[in-house]
Task: structure prediction
Amino acid sequence: MFKRIQYFAGLMLLFAVVNATAAGKQSIKIAYISQERAVPAALSNLDAFIQNKGQLGAELAISDNNTTGQFTQQQYELTKIAVPVGGDLIQAFNALGDDTGLVVLNVHPAQVNQLADLAAAQNKLLFDAATSDDELRGVQCRRHVLHILPSRAMRADALAQYMLKKRWREWFLVVGQTAEDQLYAAAIKRAAKRYGMKLVAEKAWDNTYDVRRTAQSDVPQFTQGEDYDVLVAADEQGLFGEYLDYRTWLPRPVIGTQGLIATAWHRTHEQWGAVQLQNRFKEQAGRWMEEEDYAAYLAVRAIGEASVRTKSNQVQAIKDYMLSDAFALQGYKGKPMSFRPWDGQLRQPVLLAAPRSLVSVAPLEGFLHPKSELDTLGYDQPETACK
Amino acid sequence: MQKITISGFCAAALFTAAAHAETVFVSLEKDNAIAVVDPVDAKLLKTLPVGQRPRGIALSPDGKTLFVATSDDDTIRMFDAETLKETGKLPSGEDPETFALSPDGKLMYVSNEDDSEVTVIDIAAQKAVAKIKVGVEPEGIAVSPDNRWAISASETTNMLHWIDTKTRQIVENTLVDPRPRAASFTADSQQLWATSEMAGTVMVLDSASKQIVQTIKLEVQGVTGDLIQPVGVAIDKDRRYAYVAMGPANRVAVINAQTYQVEKYLLVGQRVWNLAFSPDQSRLYTTNGISNDISIIDLAEHKVTKSLAVGRYPWGVAVKP
Result:
């Protein structure tokens, strides 16, 4: 372009070139659909409930994409649709235009396939940026849905690798009352088997009392009579898990959904440029980046990366590139991320974090895999139930 | 030099005669100080407090002024390179990390990582004279020796931006391997070498076409790919060899800059970050962030001859003749 200007330096032509460029920008339309959540019962008042988790991550990624887009003549547009509690999610999805082929979802696991199976979704590429559900990545998988957050199986494997390294092999599993707690417990049992751990005890926490008032007497009694290396909490909602630490009959660490947790993102994470992302997010949002924010950020950045490399805004071209070996997403966790073609799961390191320190990052050194060590976490190709 | 076939013997003799009295300055990110080192005797002469979190460090072309980016003070400080007295501060913008000087020493180009900008500073006036919008998280920065180009590498946008130093406009953006970190020109300005931290590659670009002409993949037996994160790159003045600091792979790659073959991997300290030549280019100094030392590499033999403890988190290195 500049050579041309040098050769024919007429002012009119200069204007013509500039106008053509502005008008000729390729537009990439992305929708972000979330359903608002009812404020859940909280164990403590320490952390305020955040309604818009995810959305601000998508917004930051759009701004990053557009910073890049100014050099590639691409313009990224984000349509944000927040459906209220009880609102009609399907109607909101159906209202999306045909030209919006890329949709980031922050919805309940039960709603992911409800949306994916709509006629209007068949030619779109959906990004599940909120669930950790193994079934949605397994028997219930859909070919046009990609999953950004680590599955429960990946999280449990990450914890198991660290426990194996520490030789904390005997586990006492405490399971809460919700369906999600059962799924988490199932992932823990799978990981225990895979890594040769021994479940020496398993008990259900029945949640009949307000644990804030009774933990000091309940927890010692609950954990008495068993010997084990670690107590594994399966309490996704956070109804009792925080109250296990320091109260067990024997002095034992707590891992799982509380204590040492396995997560895609954490405020203690600052390696590999992560501090830059933490800072940019905090400046924009006025709060720390949560896991869902990170997932939405990655989904929109993945679209950015694929569209820049393919110079395309077409769903099929973007999807083909994302699922190819060439795709490498920079996600501030030290290793390039990519999608597992067999189930659409984003391959990524999983952080092992204590409330105020990053303890380790899985896969841990020494856990080998013939293709990618990231595939030591979760369902590998031979094990997948996604057909 | 280009025509001399260097046999180890005669080269060693040549270099010994030339090598004296240089001073190596190392920024110490965690000690808020710089280390002053005599590299010939491999001695730490002194440690001088300079400000919060010093990272980028460079000498003016006349060797009289030492510039240190004190990131957490949001400024770049100037020191008299002889007396090491502070002589001024430059308005670098927030959190300055890396910067590059124009060949005449009049201008400084600073990466502002959080603002997606490059700030151009008139050093004599101690004033910012331009801000240029670049991609997300600009990090590596370089000015061509012929003063034609300033290059900014943006880590998240994955681009090298070619800034025309006269118009201060970006005229080309080259899409490169993920997370480009550092960039460095050959002495004749005809090639730009850049590293990709994520892909573990070194890319060689032609300054005329601004396209990648070679991609060199760094691979070390027994070191997993994710530990190979190339950072600093330096090319000798005759473009015989390029040297690449490989971060947590704890090695420096020795690349034949004519054939683009990696000839050797030299084991240095842990998390090797940045590199600098001795004035006669007989030695290379590396900063090793985690092992808190610098390595001294003899370039005639391509051997690490010494490592010297300098303080916590050595980051950048500058050499005064």
In short: The interface with chain B takes residues 2, 64, 67-68, 70-72, 273, 276, 279-280, 283, 301, 305, 308-309, 328-330, 334-336, 373 of chain A (CB under 8 Å). The longest strand of chain A covers residues 26-35. The two ends of chain A are 48 Å apart (CA to CA). Chain A has twelve helices and 14 strands.
